[in-house]
Q: What sequence folds into this?
């Protein structure tokens, strides 16, 4: 009676008899689907947080700055413009309108500033400079409270608001206010009239109206002109130089415009980013917009000129996100591959248990399609139930679900059993057709061998291809980091390696059999004989070694990155501790005190300035300028684990006209005739070597010696102190007396480890490793269960021949353990091998924040994975032994 | 009493039922008989008559519901698992219908397996295997694996393996079941011959009339009872 229809009772009956196994398959589906479905939204979220953090950490480097064209007024008869504030606000609106839409959406409304260069104060002693600054934030100017005097007012009454000055009129007074710190530093008080002049000796007359304190010193607006709150002092060519900034109010703004030459006034609109709105997905478009904004028409055409490092900040963030994404993909591909293989193993076990009924159905005339369909109904149910559970969990915990990764899991879960079932049924029916003729049998066997060799060569070729792709392209790149070929290299490598081991195993077993041939005992001999039959079973071995390899790879990745972060944090801090303050000559003394403190091995002070314009004959860039006592800095590097920079010794040399400098990064043309623009001074440099990466700058780094720099006439007061040694942190804290900010290496390391990308990767590596271990154990158990009937039969026969209980156990353990140990050790070796071969292409340094690839760390405890597998085998073999030794042999003669 | 040699096999009141209450199958009921040392006994009966059940009980592969089996003076039915294991190692051996050879091992190595299980010294084992190979006429096939041997040759290896440990009692359940009539006869003739030369007692379950003709005695079994 041919049967092609699906038989309901058969399905439910089978469901009941294999409930445990089906539940297990459902569980594997659920866990894998959950993990893979969560991966995409979690990665997206982590990427967004990483971009957000990068932009936030960048501070003003991430700002987009519009510089407005210079005001122009008739020098013969200058007219006071009482509506200047309105004009400025219109400018701000105009600039805002000039922003591309996407960029505009992620920037805060612009803060308008009008600033002057440092004006030399004339009658209050030498070396005192004051910049004038007007700041207009959209939510009002930064709030201040006057502790003396009053806010700056207009220098005319209401009726004179629009007066016109003749060209020969004297300087027009501008009312300004000083912060308490600035008033102290300059020795000024409310009511003082201060004559001043600009660099071209044009006179400016200032009136101090009052002294204020900031209501919120952390208001972003203060960051735009830091000297408003924190004046700086330093010694140049033996002279004390004090500089500060004074605040201009909306009322005195028209006077500023009237009293200061037009070309001394710089008008800017500063748009700072809103980090939470920065998403990874849009970062590339934003970057493009920033770039095109800057290259659009500029000041030359009398239009706004745009300036920003946001593109660099975003690019840096995106590269790191893309590196992390690529690394995550490497881990996920391995996980997915193992999950799929475990599902196939489970399906094999299921079909093996049903061989009888499936074969019988076939013999009774059921079509292969019908047999497959019956199994399909069941596996689809299992896959759907598992997927539903997995997706529901992800939905609940993560919120959204990524669809692409779980698809292969569902396909394999649904199709493995029906396909294997149909193949089994087809074989059973075809068994009778095995050619009786020996040559025909041999031809058939050769065809099978050839197919296997072709398959293995195919895998090897793909593994090579993926490896080459990884080496050439790395995992960074691709808009969505979607280079699966490169990301799958580690997995393919493991599969190819496992296939090689599979090839080597039978000859090795044969050798062992030969070696045992001449012995009296039977255990090793019989184990080898059993292994000859079973060791060639590819799938369990493949799962165990690929899972172990990927697990090793993942653990090594996490460990290497954590270890690399130690170096990265050290590089970023620049020592065990760093003190950053406003530029202050007193830091030289602070550094000396720190260096003399107990437990401090070395200390150095430096000026670290970002965004310094550096131009060469053929190129220009914004660089990080580091002005440091080269000897002290070299000692500091020697005393710490930081990479040494022997070329620092070259900085002390007399370079003649040009200041000897070290340069890191930037394009090649930058070294040629490099000139820095520093505080209105042009400093020509002579690049004599490569700079160390001071504080992990994303921009090129220029390092010069303090003395050589000062000798060129440029003034750079230190704002940074680094110290190394066990007592460094407390010494710096004590010496700083609470001013400035102290960054400790330990805190930095913690912060880095908690940063979104590294912590996300570590979590992923841990989760993936645990799942891989679970899969490896499942593979061991499923394989043992699949082969149990055949093994039981041969071992029962040996029992009938007089095998002792004790020996039964030893044979069982030997048979089950050998392939697992071989596969696990191979996996371990393959994992370590691929870590060494591939970590260099995974851009790990992007995550660790180092300058080069980190040193590979493989923790010793990774060997616990094979140990865990051995334990699993011992448990399985003990259970099987208990069952076998109690089994009555009555069926033996009937089999 | 004193002059009569003790039988090699003494079966008394042997009963084995399968299943419970409504569907109970009395595979053997109250069976008693003796087999003298050196005898080759054929157990014959229709399919389902209880031949395999009897052989299982004789060899200690199964336990009866009632009755006793003594083999070479040992009460098999009273032995624990360890005792049964020792009995299988030293006293009783089996020839399987499906041969049950280990595919990875050569004919000679298969024959040597029982000797390995008792850790017989290598030299002794090798000379015994060589002797048995001669005995079953497979000297020229010693290094062939089961897949390279014909069915009859495989069963000859099976018989040699059963004899390797010099058992007192050899149990064979339809040893020729998988062989064509001619080969089956040859194998039976061989069994007859080796039983004589090795001096073992043999119990062979069979449907085959030719086999019966080679036996010293035929135990007829029908519906779980032995007559004759
Ligand atoms: N495990 C079992 N459970 C229930 N009944 C059984 C079992 N084993 C055997 N039987 C029944 O016991 C009876 C005797 O079976 P046995 O295998 O001994 O017969 P047999 O003479 O060896 O038959 P054959 O010539 O076909 O091998 C049969 O009716 C069989 O159905
Ligand atoms: Mg039978």
A:
């Amino acid at each position: 009676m041919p049967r092609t229809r699906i038989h309901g009772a058969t399905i439910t009956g089978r469901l009941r008899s294999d409930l445990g196994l089906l539940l297990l398959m459902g569980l594997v589906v659920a866990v894998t689907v959950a993990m893979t479905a969560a991966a995409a939204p979690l990665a997206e979220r982590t990427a967004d947080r990483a971009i957000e953090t990068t932009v936030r950490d960048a501070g003003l480097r991430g700002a987009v700055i519009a510089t407005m064209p210079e005001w122009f007024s008739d020098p013969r008869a200058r007219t006071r413009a009482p509506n200047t504030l309105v004009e400025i606000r219109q400018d701000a609106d105009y600039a805002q309108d000039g922003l591309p839409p996407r960029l505009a959406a992620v920037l805060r409304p612009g803060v308008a500033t009008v600033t002057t260069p440092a004006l030399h104060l004339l009658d209050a002693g030498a070396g005192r400079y004051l910049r004038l600054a007007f700041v207009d934030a959209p939510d009002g100017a930064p709030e201040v409270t006057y502790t003396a005097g009053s806010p700056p007012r207009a220098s005319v009454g209401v009726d004179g608001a629009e007066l016109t000055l003749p060209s020969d009129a004297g300087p027009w007074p501008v009312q300004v206010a000083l912060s308490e710190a600035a008033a102290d530093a300059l020795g000024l008080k409310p009511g003082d009239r201060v004559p001043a002049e600009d660099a071209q000796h044009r006179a400016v007359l200032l009136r101090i109206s009052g002294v204020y304190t900031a209501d919120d010193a952390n208001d972003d607006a203060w960051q735009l002109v830091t000297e408003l709150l924190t004046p700086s002092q330093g010694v140049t060519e033996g002279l004390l130089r004090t500089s500060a900034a004074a605040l201009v109010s909306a009322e005195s703004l028209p006077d500023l415009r009237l009293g200061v030459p037009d070309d001394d006034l710089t008008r800017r609109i500063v748009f700072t980013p809103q980090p939470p709105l920065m998403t990874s997905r849009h970062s590339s478009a934003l970057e493009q917009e920033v770039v095109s904004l800057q290259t659009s028409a500029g000041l030359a055409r009398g239009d706004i000129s745009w300036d920003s490092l946001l593109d660099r900040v975003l690019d840096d963030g995106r590269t790191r996100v893309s590196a992390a994404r690529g690394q995550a993909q490497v881990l996920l591909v391995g996980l997915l591959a193992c999950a799929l293989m475990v599902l196939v193993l489970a399906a094999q076990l299921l079909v093996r248990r049903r061989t009888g009924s499936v074969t019988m159905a076939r013999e009774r005339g059921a079509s292969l399609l019908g047999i497959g369909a019956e199994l399909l109904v069941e596996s689809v149910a299992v896959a759907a139930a598992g997927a539903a559970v997995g997706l529901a969990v992800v939905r609940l915990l993560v919120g959204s679900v990524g669809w692409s990764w779980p698809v292969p899991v569902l396909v394999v879960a649904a199709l493995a059993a029906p396909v294997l079932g149909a193949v089994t049924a087809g074989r059973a029916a075809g068994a009778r057709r095995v050619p009786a003729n020996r040559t025909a049998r041999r031809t058939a066997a050769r065809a099978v061998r050839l197919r296997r060799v072709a398959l293995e060569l195919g895998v090897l070729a793909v593994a090579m291809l993926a490896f080459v792709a990884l080496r050439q392209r790395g995992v960074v790149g691709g808009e969505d980091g979607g280079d699966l070929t490169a990301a799958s290299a580690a997995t393919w490598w493991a599969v190819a390696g496992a296939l090689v081991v599979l090839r080597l195993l039978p000859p090795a077993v044969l050798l062992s059999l030969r070696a045992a041939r001449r012995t009296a005992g039977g255990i090793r001999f019989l184990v080898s004989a059993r292994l000859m039959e079973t060791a060639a079973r590819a799938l369990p071995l493949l799962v165990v070694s690929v899972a172990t390899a990927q697990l090793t790879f993942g653990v090594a990745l996490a460990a290497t990155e954590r270890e690399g972060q130690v170096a990265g944090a050290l590089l970023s801090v620049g020592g065990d501790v760093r003190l950053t303050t406003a530029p202050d000559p007193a830091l030289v003394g602070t550094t000396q005190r720190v260096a003399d403190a107990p437990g401090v091995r070395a200390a150095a002070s430096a000026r670290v300035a970002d965004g310094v314009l550096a131009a060469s004959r053929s190129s220009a860039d914004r660089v990080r300028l580091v002005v440091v006592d080269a000897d002290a800095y070299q000692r500091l590097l020697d005393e710490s684990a930081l990479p040494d920079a022997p070329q620092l010794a070259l900085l002390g040399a007399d370079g003649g006209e040009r200041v000897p400098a070290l340069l890191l990064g930037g394009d090649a043309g930058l070294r040629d005739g490099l000139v820095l623009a520093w505080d209105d001074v042009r400093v020509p440099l002579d690049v004599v070597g490569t700079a160390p990466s001071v504080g992990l700058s994303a921009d090129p780094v220029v390092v010069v010696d303090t003395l050589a720099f000062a000798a060129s006439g440029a003034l750079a007061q230190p704002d940074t102190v680094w110290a190394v040694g066990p007592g460094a942190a407390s010494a710096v804290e004590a010496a700083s007396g609470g001013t400035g900010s102290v960054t400790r290496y330990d805190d930095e390391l913690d912060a880095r480890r908690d940063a979104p990308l590294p912590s996300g990767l570590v979590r992923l590596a841990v989760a993936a490793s645990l799942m891989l271990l679970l899969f490896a154990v499942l593979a061991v158990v499923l394989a043992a269960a699949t082969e149990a009937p055949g093994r039981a039969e041969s071992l029962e026969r040996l029992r009938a021949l007089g095998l002792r209980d004790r020996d039964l156990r030893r044979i069982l353990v030997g048979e089950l353990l050998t392939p697992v140990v071989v596969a696990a050790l191979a996996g371990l070796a393959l994992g370590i091998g691929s870590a060494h071969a591939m970590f260099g292409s995974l851009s790990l340094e992007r995550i660790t924040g180092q300058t080069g690839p980190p040193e590979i760390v493989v923790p010793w405890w990774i060997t616990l994975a094979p140990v865990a597998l051995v334990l699993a085998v011992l448990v399985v073999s003990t259970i099987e032994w208990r069952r076998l030794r109690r089994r009555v042999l009555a069926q033996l003669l009937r089999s | 009493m004193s002059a009569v040699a003790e039988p090699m096999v003494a079966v008394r009141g042997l009963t084995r039922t399968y299943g419970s209450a409504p569907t109970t199958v009395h595979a053997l009921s109250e069976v008693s008989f003796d087999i003298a040392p050196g005898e080759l006994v054929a157990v014959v009966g229709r399919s389902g008559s209880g031949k395999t059940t009897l052989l299982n009980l004789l060899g200690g592969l199964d336990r009866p519901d009632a009755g006793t089996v003594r083999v070479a003076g040992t009460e098999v039915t009273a032995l624990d698992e360890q005792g049964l294991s020792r009995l299988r190692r030293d006293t009783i051996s089996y020839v399987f219908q499906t041969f049950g050879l280990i595919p990875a091992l050569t004919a000679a190595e298969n024959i040597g397996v029982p000797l390995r299980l008792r850790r017989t010294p290598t030299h002794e084992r090798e000379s015994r295997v060589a002797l048995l190979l001669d005995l079953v006429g497979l000297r020229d096939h010693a290094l062939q694996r089961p897949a390279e041997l014909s069915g009859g040759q495989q069963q000859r290896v099976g018989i040699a393996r059963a004899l390797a440990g010099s058992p007192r009692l050899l149990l064979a359940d339809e040893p020729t079941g998988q062989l064509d009539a001619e080969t089956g006869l040859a194998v039976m003739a061989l069994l007859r011959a080796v039983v004589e030369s090795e001096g073992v007692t043999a119990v062979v379950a069979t449907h085959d009339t030719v086999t019966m003709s080679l036996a010293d005695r035929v135990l007829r079994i029908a519906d779980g009872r032995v007559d004759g």
